[in-house]
Amino acid sequence: TKIESLEVNQYFKLRRFNEKILFFRQKKDLKELTLFDPKTQSYEALPIHDMKTTPSNKRIGYTVFNNKILAYSDNFTYFYTDGVWKKLPANFKINSAINLPKKQMIGIGTPNNYLFFEYNTLENSFFENDAAFKIDTKKTGFYNVFEDFSENIWIGTVGYGLIKVSERQLKIQHYFEGKSIYARPFISKKGTIFINNQTTQEQLILNDH
């Protein structure tokens, strides 16, 4: 069987979803959220009218958690579960979203703050007041949010340094204030943080004990 050639937008990582592969297909000047089935070698564009008409230069993204999909752009937010897409009302724009499985939360970067939503709050609405926890910032962008072995959350920012949210009490600690942290930190087993910021040609080291 000959497979039709698909142009994949390389900015987004391919994600495994229910034994299929989720990705953005670059279709002329549009990005189209697509599911590819390796078993049947077939694909389907997910039925989101707003997303099909989103120009490729607009902010757009998705994250996957618990067999669900959260898809977003500047103009819409969709939630997919049990084979059904649902448009969610929201009162903020999403710059980035990431699954934090150890916390059972979704981390959301907005133009003004960073929000943490528990999985079960995403069923019907998506308002800032629904967030379990939030970090107010000075209008910064966020990069490379991830969880470490101790379930702490690390957030790189633009011009606001590195933010650590501790596992136990969601306490915030702030490092390298005034710097932009674009690279994903590497954390050794001893807790030492290494950041190789190739964009700024900086080598940052933090002993986090």
Describe this structure in words.
- 2% of the residues lie in helices and 46% in strands.
- It is built from one helix and 19 strands.
- It has one helix spanning 49-52, and strands at residues 15-17, 20-27, 30-37, 42-45, 60-65, 68-73, 77-81, 84-87, 96-100, 105-109, 113-118, 133-136, 142-147, 153-157, 162-165, 172-175, 186-187, 192-197, 202-207.
- It has a four-stranded antiparallel β-sheet with strand order 1-2-3-4, with no helix packed on it. The chain has a four-stranded antiparallel β-sheet with strand order 5-6-7-8, with no helix packed on it.
- A hairpin with a 2-residue loop joins β2 and β3.
- 25% of the residues are buried.
Give a concise summary.
With 209 residues, the chain is mainly β. Helices cover 2% and strands 46% of the residues.
Order of helices and strands: EEEEHEEEEEEEEEEEEEEE
Overall shape: it is: globular
Structural class call reads mainly beta
- Oligomeric organization of the protein chains: single chain
Number of helices: 1
Instruction: Indicate the mean pLDDT.
Output: 76
- Report on the biggest sheet: 4 strands, antiparallel
Strand content: over 45%
Number of strands: 19
